[in-house]
Amino acid sequence: MNLSNFDQDAGLRRLHMMERIRAFEETARRAAIDEELVLGAIHLSIGQEAVATGIIENLRRDDYILSTHRGHGHTLAKGAQADAMMKELLGREGGCCGGKGGSMHIADFGVRMLGANGVVGANITIAAGAAHGIKLLGGDQIVVCFFGDGASNRGPFLEGVNWAGVFQLPILFVCEDNQYSASTLTSDMTSGNIADRARALGLRTTEADGNDVTALAATAAEITARIRETGTPEFLMAKTYRISGHTYFDPATYRPEGEAERMKATTCPIARLRETLSETGVSTDELDGLAQEARAEMDRALDAARDAPWPADETAFADVQDIGSPLQEAF
Amino acid sequence: MAVMSYADAAKLAVAEAMRDDPTVWCVGEDLGRGGVFKQYTGLVEEFGPQRISDAPISEAAIMGAAFGAAMAGTRPIVEMRFADFALCATDELVNQIAKARFMFGGQSRAPMVIRKPMGMWRSSAAQHSQSLESWYAHIPGLVVCCPATPQDNYSMMKAAIACDDPVVYLEHKNIWAHEGEVDTTKAVEFGKAALRRSGQHVTLVSWSHTANLCVEAADTLARQGVEAEVIDLRSLWPWDKAAVFDSVRKTGRLLVAHEAVSVAGFGAEVVATVAQNIPMKTLPKRLGSPRGLIAYAPNLEDQMRVTAPMIAKAAQDMMENEPA
C-alpha cells in the first residue's frame, strides 16, 4: 500500500470502531458462555468488522441502514449505544428494544437503524421500500442494505433488487460475503456469481476486498456520494471471512482444519489496519490503547446490563397493536 | 347520500384519504390500468403514477417494500390482486409487518392497508377463490376486516387508512358490483358489529358476503315465523363480543355462518367464546365450507358453497330441535 497519503486520523478512528465491534461481540460471547447472561442465539461478525465500519462512516445520521441476524457491527457503526445494545442481548429493561427483540431484532430508530432481521434476505425488500419512501417524500437520504452471501439465494433478493432498479431508488445493496451460509459453503449452493446477478438486474456493481477497511471506505465514499447525487441504486460485493462460527456456540467443524486460523492470520481486518498504522509510525502502545478502551467500554456495558432489571411483565402485552390489543381483547 | 357500488365506495374512500394526506399511496400490479377489478379506475389520472404505483409481479416485494416505505414515513395501501396471491408475501406480512412494532420495542409502526380480494366468485378454482380470514385473525399485530356492504367498504376503508396498525382488508370479489347507499359522514369503528336485522328467536353471526346471505336467510325465516337477528361482525380482530353476547342472551340460540372452511374457521372462535360465557337454549352451531377444495366446474364449486337456503335451514333446525 502507498502510505504517502494515508490518513492516519481516519485510520485510528476506523481501528477504534472495529475494536469496539469486536470487543462488543467478544464480551457478549463471554457473557453467554461464562455467565449464561445472553440466553438466546447470537451471531458474531468477528472478522467482518471492516464492512460495517468502512461503509457506514460515509452515511449521515438520517440515512437508513437495515441489517441481518449478524447485525451488531452495523448497529454500533451507525451510532447505537453499546450499553442499550448489551441490555437488549441480555433481555433487560433499557435495551434498545425493551428486551423484546434480542440480538436478532436489534434496532435503533434514533440513528435510523431499521432493524436486524431473523429471516435471511427478508430485509432486502424492506430496505428497497425505505428508499421508495424517501423518494416519495422527496428526501435526500440514502439507504444501505446489508445482507449475506446466503441471502442471494432467496427470492426476495431478486424481487428487492429488481424493485430498486425499476423505481430507481437511492439504495446501496451490500452483499457481505463471509463465504458461509450458516454451516454450508455458499459456493457449493450457488449457481454462478452473486455480483453477476446484480449486474444482470442492471445495477452498477463494485467488487471489493471487505477486509481492507481503508480501501473499502474510499470505495464506499464514492458509491454513496453517487447514489445521493443520482438517486440510482448500486450493488457492492464485499468479500470477507467469518472467523467465528454461525452462532457463538458453533465450533464450525464443517470447515477444513486450520482454515479459520489461517484466515485470521492473513485477512483479519483489525490486524491488517494495525500493521498499516504501525508502518505510518503509530506506536504499539497507542494501538493497544484503542483496543483496551474498547474492551473497557464493553465491560462497562455488560456491568450495566447485568445490573439492569428484567422488563416489567406487562410490557409483554404492549406495542402489539392499538386496535384489538391483547390486553383489551383477549380472554 | 349517493348510491354506489362496493368497488366505487372503497375507491371514493381511497381518493378522499389521498387528497387529505399526501403520504397515502397505493401500490400493486396493474393499478395504473385501474386494478384487476377496476377498483382503482381513474385514480392514476388524479394522483399520478408515483402515488398510484404499478408494481412488478413480485408480491413479496410489494408487501416488503410497502412496509419499508411505511417505516420511512408513508402510509401505503397495498393491493394483492387476489387474497390467494398474498400467500407469496406471507413472511413479509406475518414475520415482518405484524411483528415489527413489538420486536423493536415500539420504535416503529406499520400503518398499512393490505387489500386482499377474497372469496368464491365464478369458476375461479382452487387458487383464486379462498377465504383465509381466520389465518390472519390468528396473528397478533394485525387488524382484520371483511366489509359486506358499500357503506362499510367506504367507512372501513377510511378507518383502515387512518389506522396506525397494519390492517388486512378483505373485500369479497363476488360483490364488487353490489350497489347501496353510502353516507360519507358515517364512521365505522373496528370491533363494532353492524346489526343488519333485529329478531328475538335466533342470532345469526357472519361477516363478508355471507352476512348478506344471512340477511336473505332471515327474510325466508321471517316468512316461516322465525325472527332471526343478523349480526355482521365486519371486523374479525377485534370482534364485537359484546354485541354477540347481548344478542345471544336475548335469543338463546347462535348460528355462525361463513364461506371459509368450517374446520378451524373463525366461526369456531365465535362459538367457543359465546359457549364459555352465555348459557344457550340449544347447542350452538357453525356453518362453513366442508374441508374440501374449490373446483372450477359450477356444480363442483357449489359443493363447497354456503348458501342462504342452507343458513335458513340450519336456523330452522335449531328452532325445531329445541329440548322440551
Keywords, please?
heterodimer, A: 331 residues, alpha/beta, Rossmann fold, five-stranded parallel sheet, two-stranded antiparallel ribbon, B: 324 residues, 2 domains, seven-stranded mixed sheet, five-stranded mixed sheet
Can you walk through the features of this model?
- Chain A is 46% helix and 10% strand.
- Chain A has 331 residues and is α/β, with parallel strands linked by helices.
- Chain A has one domain (9-182, 191-304): Rossmann fold (3-Layer(aba) Sandwich), CATH 3.40.50.
- A 5-stranded parallel sheet of chain A has the order 1-2-3-7-6, with helices on both faces.
- Chain A is globular.
- The model of chain A has no long low-confidence stretch (mean pLDDT 96).
- Chain B is an alpha/beta fold.
- In chain B, strands 3-2-4-5-7-6-12 form a 7-stranded mixed sheet, sandwiched between helices. Chain B has a 5-stranded mixed sheet with strand order 9-11-10-13-14, sandwiched between helices.
- In chain B, helix 3 packs parallel to helix 4 (90-103), helix 7 crosses helix 11 and helix 8 (241-251) packs across helix 9 (266-277).
- Chain B starts with a strand and ends with a helix.
- The chains are: A alpha/beta (331), B alpha/beta (324).
- Chains A and B meet through helix 5, helix 6 and helix 12 of A and helix 3 and helix 4 of B.
Explain the layout of strands and helices.
The complex is a heterodimer of chains A (331) and B (324).
Chain A: H1 8-33, H2 49-56, E1 64-66, H3 72-78, H4 82-90, H5 122-137, E2 143-148, H6 155-167, E3 171-177, E4 180-181, E5 184-185, H7 194-200, E6 204-209, H8 213-230, E7 234-239, H9 259-267, H10 269-279, H11 284-307, H12 326-329
Parallel strand pairs in A: 1-2, 2-3, 3-7, 6-7
Antiparallel strand pairs in A: 4-5
Helix pairs in contact in A: 1-2, 1-3, 1-10, 1-11, 2-3, 2-8, 4-11, 5-6
Chain B: E1 2-5, H1 6-20, E2 24-27, H2 43-51, E3 52-53, H3 59-71, E4 75-79, H4 90-103, E5 113-115, H5 133-137, E6 143-145, H6 150-162, E7 167-169, E8 179-182, E9 194-197, E10 202-206, H7 208-223, E11 228-232, E12 235-237, H8 241-251, E13 254-261, H9 266-277, E14 285-289, H10 298-302, H11 308-320
Helix pairs in contact in B: 1-6, 3-4, 7-11, 8-9
